[in-house]
TrEMBL record:
Positions of the catalytic residues: E116
Localization of this protein: Secreted
Gene: Cbn-nas-20
Co-factor(s): Zn(2+)
Protein name, per record: Zinc metalloproteinase
Keywords: Disulfide bond, Glycoprotein, Hydrolase, Metal-binding, Metalloprotease, Protease, Secreted, Signal, Zinc
Keyword Transmembrane helix recorded: no
Amino acid sequence: MKVLLLLVSLAVGLCFGNQVRSKRQALSDALRWPNNTMNYYYEDGFPLEMQAMFRDAFNYLKSHTCLNFVNNKDAENAVYIRNRVSCWSALGMRSGEHQELSLDYPCAHFGVALHETMHALGIAHGQARTDRDKYLIVEAEDHNDYINEDTTLSVPFDYGSVMLYWRTERRFPKDPEYNYTMGSLRVGFYDMILLNEYYGCNCEKHPVKLDCKNGGYQNPANCDECTCTDGFKGQTCDELDGHILSASTEWRPLYYGGPYSKTLEKSMAPKNVFFHVTVSTDYLQEVLSKKTLFQAPEGSTIEVRTTRLEGFFCHFTCDWNGVELKYLTDRRMTSPLTCCDDDNLWNKTRSSTNNPFVIVKYGEDKGPRFQFEYRYLPGNLTSS
Ligand SMILES: [Zn+2]
């Protein structure tokens, strides 16, 4: 009986829910899909709304990597997607098998569909990284967190990874700033970099080298453009996507109430709304061009603080929605997410020398509303 249980746990990768858990986290152990193509098919009667989640997860992965997803139940290797108990997947391609992947109602979400697909592609959990002890406190008996090989490639640990579990009493961040960031269902920018490294997706052979700005990199899905970090767009990520605000040395407030439309969303993927706080010598020109043409005065710092959070789903993780004040210098890295206004984290003043300072409102856009204030400190002044 013990042997059988072990076999089952080896075969099944991580899950959302409390079903079978895995000890197998190694990337190098898992098989990659040949020709960068994952075959899949759905069980008869698989709910259409769940199919839509996979459609959007596959589209997301296709547009950020060199991977393809083909609906083919006759392939030698394929992922058989079913509605069973809980959400889980095998880790990596299981040669000669039609391996199962389950999505279930209590955990059905675009981010979970993408998380389980990442497992099927060979990507393990964030809490299974060899460097996780620098960032997390985990109890050894929490066997979901077992490490046995290097799983990090060159990608740094990110508390906002879609592959990292939520906080519990036995698994929590060393830095409490990230208490609500763990368990996010939003795809981290580094998640796609990890997948691209694992599958060798890159634009090295492309004749044109793009100079991608603001943390972007040449997109392996389309080497004629860059993949941009949150809030940026355009071929080389030098255009601002979202609302542009001009900071002064006095605090200014911005209240965001969201749209009032009743339209259906086209995608199951969570929506992001971006705000840019800029310091510019020619603000009007910057807004008109939507490009970051001008430099902030030397050494200036932009400060932002959230002052109201309303209508966000607040519990132990900001999985469904949240606000991210992207103050970390590395624009690829997730800064702490907030969705609850009942602790001392949510309204902290965040400072950054990044210009513009990007603010992300993540998740369902019709309910949650928030307000923040912003200013800049010229020269080498810092906040007291
Ligand atoms: Zn998992």
